Structures are given as structure tokens and as C-alpha cells.
Amino acid sequence: MSVLAFHLPEEVWLQVFLLLPDEEKMSIRACCKYFRRLIDRPSLWRNRAVVLKKIRSYNSQFWATLRRRKISTVVVHKAGIREWESIVMSLPWLTAVTIEQCSDEEVLKTLQRFNSLKKLVIRSSQCPSGLASALTPLRQLTHLCLCELQRAPRTELISAVSQLADLNSLFYHEGDKPISKRTFQGMLARLPNLKQLSLKMGPGYGTLPEDYFSLSKTNYSKTGREGLNQNGLGLTRLELLNYMDPMLSPRALEPLMSLQSLTVGYRDRVMEPGRCNLRAWLSKLPCLTELTISRGYPLGVYVHSVPWTLQSLSLLQVFMHPGDLNALGNQTPNLQHLHLDLCSYDGQSGLQELPNLFPKLETLKLRHCYMTELEFVGLAQLEHLRQLVILDAYQGPSPALLKLIQKLQVKTNYRVQVIHTPKARDPTACLCSQY
């Protein structure tokens, strides 16, 4: 490298390094002390998660590097009390911790020593008997995810969660059946700041009460929330996983008037349109701007109920018939973000009309294998398109796809970022929520 390169301002190098994947940053870091110092700057590692495995093999230099980078998020696999002591001593300022495969009650007690802890994810674990008592002191938590816990004492857990009044995000994926109405409403009434809720509904259960999401006046008065809207919760984001009708009634979501984002992950595909409660739900959500549907009913069953307020739509493993895309375009004139990963009876017919149907699209995710060259290059007509994600270039782009991308780039004067490599999985995320 030219000596002149080292005379560039550090700010310029930092901006360059921000654009690089971690592997390339590590290669450059090994070049010299100057780059090592720059790449260890905390600004390059903000909001990045470090996965910790076989912690006993880490030496003092490793922990010193994490301290220099001010790492605040970690994912910990199969660690005992000794390993957790090392984490607490080296990174006491952690704000987000994900624990995987832990059944040691003493380990959970160490969480109290992270005074800045805001986000806690516990997943894929044999639930220790002391989990509830370990959660109770963590009053500062704003995000909690309990996922795939085996033999969890539901009553004790929900009682502990109910005491975390600062929670604004709760992912409760414990058990194989939904929480009873009385217990569910009692918990939510004590979480006044909750905005995001994710529930794993479980297999066939029957129909829950129609007012499942409507808190009673009794619940409000017990918790001093009389001044709030008593028609329901203040949720803005709701996720229903492993769901099948008729577990919730057609009117179940009516109290959630402030809902802005809805995700429904059906357990399987459903072909009987008469059972679809999604149509009724969508017609009663005036603030909805984001919708994600996985599996479930064919698009045509509910397409005419999709609200015009939508700005972001994801359809994953959903059947689409000819004409459904046209109907969707008529329903969503303001759509800016579209993710299509369909199971279509008739290919992905209608994609040539995308620029006319969704003229405001800024991001688009889809498979290219069913698209003709005319359809693919025709995406250049989307004047606001900034990012195109190709979902089916698993082994890297083929020569034919690269040619199509080049033609699209030329037509758009290279304003569209085309992504064809799979996005890395967020190591801190709940596995239930990932498609």
C-alpha cells in the first residue's frame, strides 16, 4: 500500500471500514498496528453482536479487544458459572444478552450484575427452576424474549414477566398452547409500556374468547391505568406464530386500533376460504402500515381486505393466482416495500406489471427464476426503486443473472443496489420469528 494512503484522515478510513463485512475488516486489521487501532474503534462495532462459544479458550487479549470495541451485545452458548464470571468482569456494560442452552440457575443470577442490561433473550433451554426468580430483579429490561423453553413453569414465569413494567417488547414463545385469557390480560395490564408483542399460538386449541385482546375495566383499575384507552392495548406491533383459524375470532383484533404492524405465521397452508379470519382483522386496523403473511390462505382469499394504508408487505410461501397481483396493486397504491416469495400455481405471472401496479416501490425482494428478461429488466421502470434483493441465487449469481443485473443497472444509471447473497441471520433473534 502506498505510504500516501496513511495520510488520509482517520474519518475517511472509518467510513470505508464501515462498508466492509467483518471478514474483510479482520484481514485489513492484521496488516499493521495503525489499521488494528482504527478497526477496533467502538464506532465500527456499534450494535454488533459477538457470539461467544467455548469461552474458556479465550485469553486476556481477546477480552481486551472486546473492551476496546465497547461490545454491548453478546450471544452466549452453553456457558457455566465460571465462563459467566469472565463475561461479567470483562464486559460489565452489556446492554443485550442472548442465552442459548442454559439450565443453570446460578448462571441466571449473574444477569443482575449487568446494570445496563435492556434486552434479554433466552432460547432453546431446559428451563431452570429459578428462571422466574432470576427475571424478577431485572426491572430495567425493555425487551424480553423467551423461546423454546422446555418444562417452563408458566404461572411463575408470567408472574415474573408481569413485574417488568418497563417492557416495550415481549416475545413469549413458551409452551404448546396459548395463554388463558385471564392470565394473559392480567399480565398485559401490568405492562403499560408494551408496544410489541409476539405470541406462539400452538396447535389446535379451539377458539379463544372474542375479547382476548381487550382489557377489562377491572384490570385497568387494579393497575392504575384508568386514564388510558380502555378499548384495548396500546400495541403497535403484533406477531402471531404457529397460528391456525379459528383460534382467534374474526373480531379478536378490533381492540388493537393503534396496530401499525401485523405478522401472521400460519402453521400450514389452508385452502378453505370460508375459515379465513384475516379478512375481518385487516378491515378493522386503520393504522396498519406493515403486513407479513407466511403460508396460510391463497392471496386471493384476503387481497380485497388489504388496507390502502400499507407501506410494507411481505408474502412468504403464499399461493397467488393470475389476477391477484393486479388486485393487490389496486389495494395498495402507497406501497414502498414489497417482499414476494410465493408458491404460485401459474408461475409468477403478472410481474411485468409491477412498475404500473406499485409505482412507489423503494425496495423489492423476489425470486428471479420465473422471470423473463423483459420482466427483470422492466423493473428499471420503478423510478423510486433503490434496492432489489434476489432471493434464489443460493450458490451465487449465475452468468445469466449477472447479465440481467448489468442490463438493469445500465437502464437505471446504477441507482439500484442489487443484492444476491443471502442475508446473514441475526444471531440475537428468536428462531421462531425467522423465515
Automatic annotation (TrEMBL):
Start and end residues of each F-box domain: 2-48
InterPro entries the UniProt entry points to: F-box-like_dom_sf, F-box_dom, FBXO4, LRR_dom_sf
GO biological process, one term: protein polyubiquitination
Entries under Gene3D superfamilies matching the protein: 1.20.1280.50, Ribonuclease Inhibitor
GO-annotated cellular components: SCF ubiquitin ligase complex
Signal peptide start-end: none
Protein name: F-box domain-containing protein
Organism expressing this protein natively: Albula goreensis
Lineage, uppermost ranks: Eukaryota, Metazoa, Chordata, Craniata, Vertebrata
